[in-house]
Each structure stands twice: as structure tokens, then as C-alpha cells.
Amino acid sequence: HECPLCHMKFQRPEHVKRHMLSHSSEKPFECPESGCNKRFNRNDNLKQHLR
């Protein structure tokens, strides 16, 4: 399974799908902390930020 944009290879198709978010400027996950304006393209990255 290969990324059509950068040709990075993955073991599973869902990993390619997850990776494709790195090529997008879309960041739908916003930090809920007051005064923090950070946004993330993946929910797991937001959760890591909140720890």
C-alpha cells in the first residue's frame, strides 16, 4: 500500500488513509484549553497534546 503523493509505503490501507492527512492543511481537532489556539489533523495528536 503506497501513498499516491509521496510514495511512502505502508503495511495496511488504513495507514495510508491516516497518512494522507499529513498532506492536507485541514486540522479539524481544536484544543479546548482556554488561550490555546492549537489545532491538529488527528484526534490522537490532540489527546497527546492534552496530557
TrEMBL record:
SMART domains: ZnF_C2H2 (SM00355)
Chief localization: nucleus
InterPro entries: creA/MIG_C2H2-ZnF, Znf_C2H2_sf, Znf_C2H2_type
Domain C2H2-type positions: 1-28, 29-51
Region listing for Disordered, in residue ranges: 26-51
Gene3D superfamilies: Classic Zinc Finger
Compartmental location: Nucleus
UniProt GO MF annotations: DNA-binding transcription factor activity, RNA polymerase II-specific; RNA polymerase II cis-regulatory region sequence-specific DNA binding; zinc ion binding
Example of a GO biological process term: carbon catabolite repression of transcription from RNA polymerase II promoter by glucose
Keyword terms: Metal-binding, Nucleus, Repeat, Transcription, Transcription regulation, Zinc, Zinc-finger
Comp. bias regions, Basic and acidic residues: 41-51
Record-linked PANTHER family: REGULATORY PROTEIN MIG1-RELATED (PTHR47428)
Protein name: C2H2-type domain-containing protein
Taxonomic lineage: Eukaryota, Fungi, Dikarya, Ascomycota, Saccharomycotina
